[in-house]
Amino acid sequence: MNILIAYTSTEGQTRKIARYAADYLNGQGHSVELVGAKDAHDAELARFDAVLLAGSVHGGKYQKPLIALAKSKAAALAQVRSAFLSVSLTAAGTDADEWAGLTACVDRFAKKTGWTPPTVMHVAGAFRFSEYDFFKSWAMRWIASQKNEQVDPHEDKEFTDWATLKKTLDTWLLGA
Ligand SMILES: Cc1cc2nc3c(=O)[nH]c(=O)nc-3n(C[C@H](O)[C@H](O)[C@H](O)COP(=O)(O)O)c2cc1C
């Protein structure tokens, strides 16, 4: 299959996940084009058998370039096998209220863009202290403490479950 993966990433984890997905799908015999969302506007979606848009949650929102892309391509996305890969720290846990908040983020994204993704993949992200400034680091240490999560501000901490991601991608493409 011919697959497009377009992503946004603030601290780099979604970029890493998108690259991993591209490498995995390539290894499965698919032809994959991996692009940053800002560079995907001229992509002709009809050329692809499947399109994956990926972004991460910051303060309950996804990155603006991803919203802009989904909005401008909403009609074309509806014509192709598509999925939304949402990266967050909420996805690393099981708190029902946090999950309800995450679902609301996706709903807002769908409303803003006019694209209701038929498949939503929730993928756990990472604490990336190496990318944070002083204030972000402070805020993320506070969030970690609220979650009873032990973090060392000198070390990044990744929650992404790579094996599950592969299975999720397989399930998405199954039956194509
Ligand atoms: C400033 C900031 C705000 C965040 N807000 C949320 C949030 O509202 N909900 C959530 O589940 N995760 C939140 N996260 C966690 C990110 O989604 C997570 O770190 C993810 O791996 C970031 O992906 P990226 O490196 O591709 O930007 C936040 C992270 C930062 C640094």
UniProtKB/TrEMBL annotation:
<protein>
    <submittedName>
        <fullName>Menaquinone-dependent protoporphyrinogen oxidase</fullName>
    </submittedName>
</protein>
<dbReference type="Pfam" id="PF12724">
    <property type="entry name" value="Flavodoxin_5"/>
</dbReference>
<keyword id="KW-0285">Flavoprotein</keyword>
<dbReference type="InterPro" id="IPR052200">
    <property type="entry name" value="Protoporphyrinogen_IX_DH"/>
</dbReference>
<dbReference type="GO" id="GO:0006783">
    <property type="term" value="P:heme biosynthetic process"/>
</dbReference>
<dbReference type="GO" id="GO:0070819">
    <property type="term" value="F:menaquinone-dependent protoporphyrinogen oxidase activity"/>
</dbReference>
<dbReference type="GO" id="GO:0010181">
    <property type="term" value="F:FMN binding"/>
</dbReference>
<keyword id="KW-0288">FMN</keyword>
<dbReference type="InterPro" id="IPR026816">
    <property type="entry name" value="Flavodoxin_dom"/>
</dbReference>
<dbReference type="InterPro" id="IPR029039">
    <property type="entry name" value="Flavoprotein-like_sf"/>
</dbReference>
<dbReference type="InterPro" id="IPR008254">
    <property type="entry name" value="Flavodoxin/NO_synth"/>
</dbReference>
<feature type="domain" description="Flavodoxin-like">
    <location>
        <begin position="3"/>
        <end position="167"/>
    </location>
</feature>
